Prior knowledge:
This protein has eleven helices and eight strands. The chain has helices at 51-68, 93-102, 119-129, 149-156, 162-174, 192-207, 225-231, 240-249, 274-287, 290-299, 303-313, and strands at residues 6-14, 17-25, 76-80, 107-111, 138-145, 178-185, 212-217, 254-255. The longest helix is centred in the N-terminal third of the chain and has 18 residues, at 51-68. Zinc ion is lined by residues 269-270, 272-273, 301, 303.
Amino acid sequence: MEKPLAxxxxxxxxxxxxxxxxxxxxxxxxxxxxxxRMCSYRLERYTERTEDHLASLxxxxxxWISARYAxxxxxxxxxxxxxxxxxxxxxPPVVVDAAAGLFRGKVVIAETRPEFxxxxxxxxxxxxxxxxxxxxxxxxxxGLETTNDFIREKCIDKGFSWEDFLAAVRExxxxxxxxxxxxxxxxxxxxxxxxxxxxxxxxxTVSGIADLxxxxxxxVQRHTELEYYWKLGAYRPxxxxxxxxxxxxxxxxxxxxPVGGGRSRGPxxxxxxxxxxxSAIRDFSLSNDRGLLKDVFxxxxxxxxxxxxxxxxxxxxxxxxxx
Length: 323
Ligand code: SF4
Ligand SMILES: [Zn+2]
């Protein structure tokens, strides 16, 4: 039996409740874009050429999930594919249909690039999972990363525009689906301060448009362009102080899972204060209680001065952004 790249049970905050959730990362035909500077997920893909073979490998992963988890007890499922769940070239339609059958009656959040958000396909999927229990059974999650087209293009190489994202949101709304936006805090080439300002602006701009906003502090994944610069000392993941200050001052509830928090490849401070801050951010994401964040921010640490110094004194490298 094929296994997904990852699959784990957890909890998620959803409209005032905490729901048990299953997060699934399916191995697929791979992301069609396949270029983002910080992404290593795109390297995990099947190279099978025929749609039938690819479909059988994916269906086998769904079998593995249903054999291993008591799905009846899990009301929410988040599906990631290291690309786009609704790209028929990456996930054959027969697999999308099978997933809809398997996760019928649940809240489903499925990740996709905006170019694959098409009202008809979403309606079909939603009709299959909908049992009338949830007002919005399907939410499409898109890695918008930033609302700034220049940063998305030059620092990430994401390959779509803010306008493309808005068009996808319109398609999702036509289908009656919800929208979740993922933002990337501190992509390559930005100073700590530039990254902070970019996220402040992005959260403000997207908050009236997406139903759910999640911010990913950037981590250095292996075999990526970002890792190349990190090894040269030309990139540092964001300070957890920056992450805290963004979450505290955001005009809406922004969830955050600081993957790799406290490690040199992930968002980190000095090493002494990291653990408590990462825990506070995780607890906040399940409770929307900003008091938890304010407590650790105010408790401080000697490295908070360093962060403030970096914010005010770090200069852009003046590295050429084009060849
Ligand atoms: S679109 Fe997503 S999966 Fe594809 S390369 Fe970019 S970050 Fe990776
Ligand atoms: Zn510290």
